[in-house]
Design goal:
single chain; 382 residues; alpha+beta; 10-stranded antiparallel β-sheet; 8-stranded antiparallel β-sheet; globular; ADC_synthase
Length: 382
């Protein structure tokens, strides 16, 4: 499905949900630039930017062809008609497909690279502002671009990520005029399951996994504890904004995500029981961008990001995932991700800064986060 979609220049998404084995796929006849309700009835795949603009629009891929990945189950065909060139390529099931794929990249090319000195100077300015009481937290991001090594196999890289990170949401999204993104994110943003239970998480605080230690052995500094508490309080404030009082809160606890440890608190609510049948859609509007990728207070943090960051985040720290497929919506924050150019790969990562942050340590944190996916591209550095 993925190869045939690229050949016919159609938008396509390939993904594997956390703690599952099946890779799922979806092909669309066209891109829509508005999101449907998270509770249905329209199904598809959402790919949403950090902040939308003409160059990075909101995108939604209707499920015109969807495969659940389950053995013995045929792909589901939607209402829109896919071109004959796609079906001709798709039906070549008996022939070995070429590993040489040409994927779309962003029409404006790669984003501006961010050097260590620039990142640390920006971080120092943000920390100074927080120490003076202007805001509580801001997340500053950076990029790193490498050349693609000869023989790089995009689908093999996706498969490698599914094997390396069984608890992550692993995705490969390719949209003409938008670009191609690969990632393995640990952070759930909005879930509406088949029992109509809403879920979201507060995820913040980062430290590397130490050999021989389990998550139960993790010791957290005050800076990480406060950073996670800010995200937690923000989710609670969204519930209060809706006047929802009946929800379940569990955590915080330490979880492992690839080569990193994080603090995580889980929230849930039975939508029909609490009288909020559209809670997924309502919370999505309030949550994005969360304080885990923007900061607190939200408006002041976003303003500071606009002033200090010298690159466009595009779809990094936006959100993505299937909408009403398998009677579920599963949206994740687009973290631990890379953007593929024609012959380059660009990684994005951010660090949550508070008044107690040290810019040099925040740079190291972004390096660790980038390694989640960049480890697949290290041959390009040699």
């Amino acid at each position: 499905m993925f190869q045939a979609a690229l050949g016919a220049t159609l938008p396509v998404a390939l993904w594997r949900l956390p703690n599952t084995r099946e890779a799922q796929a979806l092909v669309s006849a066209e891109v829509k630039h508005t999101l449907p309700s998270m509770e249905g009835p329209q199904s598809g795949f959402a790919f949403y930017p950090f902040q939308s603009s003409g160059a990075v629009p909101v995108t939604f891929l209707p499920a015109d062809l969807y495969f659940s990945g389950k053995a013995g189950v045929s792909p589901q065909i939607g209402e829109a008609v896919l071109p004959t060139s796609f079906w001709a390529d798709f039906q070549k099931t008996g022939q070995k497909q070429s590993n040489i794929l040409e994927w779309p990249s962003h029409p404006e090319g790669t984003v501006k690279p961010i050097t260590r000195d620039v990142f640390e100077v920006s971080g120092a300015k943000a920390i100074k502002a927080m120490q003076s009481g202007c805001l509580d937290k801001v997340v500053l991001s950076r990029t790193k671009t490498l050349p693609l090594f000869e023989g790089f196999d995009l689908l093999h890289a996706f498969t490698q990520l599914t094997q390396l990170y069984p608890t992550a949401f692993v995705s490969l999204v390719s949209i003409p005029g938008i670009g191609t993104w690969l990632g393995a994110t640990p952070e759930l943003l909005v879930q509406v399951d088949s029992y109509r239970v809403f879920r979201t998480v507060a995820l913040a605080g980062t430290q590397p996994v130490m050999e021989g230690l389990t998550p139960a052995d993790a010791i957290w500094r005050q800076k990480e504890i406060e950073e996670q508490a800010l995200v937690q309080r923000y989710i609670v404030s969204c519930f209060r904004h809706l006047r929802l009082r009946e929800y379940v809160e569990m955590g915080p606890r330490t979880i492992m995500a690839g080569n990193l440890l994080h603090l995580r608190t889980d929230f849930s609510a039975a939508m029909d029981e609490v009288g909020f049948p559209k809670l997924g859609t309502q919370m999505l509007e309030l949550l994005h961008p969360t304080s885990a990728v923007g900061g607190m207070p939200k408006a002041a943090a976003l303003q500071m990001i606009g002033e200090l960051e010298q690159h466009d985040r595009r779809y990094y720290s936006g959100f993505l995932g299937p909408v009403q497929l398998g009677q579920e919506t599963n949206l994740f924050v687009n973290l631990r991700c890379v953007e593929l150019g024609q012959d380059t790969v660009t990684a994005y990562a951010g660090a949550g800064m508070t008044a107690d942050s040290i810019p040099a340590k925040e740079w190291v944190e972004t390096e660790l986060k980038m390694q989640t996916v960049l480890r697949l591209f290290q041959a390009s550095e040699s």
